[in-house]
């Protein structure tokens, strides 16, 4: 049976700390390796594991800094080597393509041909159409479908087909049809849990979830396992307990640096 697993490289919201990077997850199915999000500290995690040249694709849920800033050092690490690896897909929400191209302009070193356009040279930049009906084949048996999340900027909830297994990511989002559809029936669901408590107006404005909403979402979606992530670094234990209490019969795991979660067909 093909080995399928999720490794948490980073799970912090907003900023890294001494123990963990910001959002970044390694999805492995057989020999295929996909990076989901690349926040501050993730490039270092990849370098430490010798994976910066061994990825098959990178998928960014949205362009907030804690989910994508390290895509620039990742590009440079792939290019500034005696034998640069082939370009790999870099997928972002379709209405964020121009913002990524603008970033490529600002980080370029125009006097050095190797990094004159580092993102476009290291990656094949491609759009994620967030309609829940346009799967993108990434490599091998791995494909991803994007759904419209509810956030302050264009954000994609993701549903990965990994052979006969399903892995979903909420991205940053409030409760909405898109994230519920992405997560429904998933074997493993990685869900943001930004706030322990928050006023409804704040949740609506920023597009985030509380711990209780995270647990309720996992239960409503009927997932096999809920991984609680995107934590601020305080009240983490209380947030995990609140999500677990709200998830009902769904098993709940707290994200931590280096956590490995097997993705296996859930027994329901």
Automatic annotation (TrEMBL):
SMART domains associated with the record: Lactamase_B
Pfam family, one: Lactamase_B_2
Alphabetized GO MF terms: 3'-tRNA processing endoribonuclease activity
Domain Metallo-beta-lactamase as annotated: residue spans: 21-208
Listed InterPro entries: Metallo-B-lactamas, RibonucZ/Hydroxyglut_hydro
This protein's name: MBL fold metallo-hydrolase
Species classification: Bacteria, Bacillati, Actinomycetota, Actinomycetes, Micromonosporales
């Amino acid at each position: 049976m093909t080995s399928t697993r999720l490794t948490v490289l980073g799970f912090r919201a907003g900023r890294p700390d001494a123990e963990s990077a910001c959002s970044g997850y390694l999805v492995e199915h057989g020999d295929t390796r996909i990076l989901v999000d690349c926040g501050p500290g993730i490039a270092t995690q990849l370098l430490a594991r010798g994976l910066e040249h061994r990825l098959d694709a990178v998928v960014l849920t949205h362009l907030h800094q804690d989910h994508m800033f390290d895509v620039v050092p990742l590009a440079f690490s792939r290019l500034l080597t005696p034998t640069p690896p082939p370009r790999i897909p870099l997928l972002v929400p379709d209405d964020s393509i121009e913002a990524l191209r603008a970033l490529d302009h600002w980080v370029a070193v125009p006097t050095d041909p190797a990094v004159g356009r580092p993102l476009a040279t290291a990656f094949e930049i491609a759009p994620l159409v967030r309609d829940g009906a346009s799967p993108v084949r990434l490599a091998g048996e791995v494909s991803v479908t994007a759904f419209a999340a509810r956030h302050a900027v264009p954000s994609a909830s993701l549903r990965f087909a990994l052979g006969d297994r399903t892995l979903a990511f909420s991205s940053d989002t409030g409760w909405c049809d898109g994230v519920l559809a992405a997560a429904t029936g998933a074997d493993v669901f990685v869900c943001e849990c930004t706030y322990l408590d928050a006023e409804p107006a704040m949740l609506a404005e920023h597009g985030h979830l509380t711990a209780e909403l995270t647990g309720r979402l996992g239960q409503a979606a009927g997932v096999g396992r809920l991984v609680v992530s995107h934590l601020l670094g305080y009240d983490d234990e209380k947030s995990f307990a609140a999500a677990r209490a709200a998830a009902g019969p769904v098993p709940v795991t707290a994200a931590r640096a280096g956590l490995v979660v097997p993705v296996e067909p859930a027994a329901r």
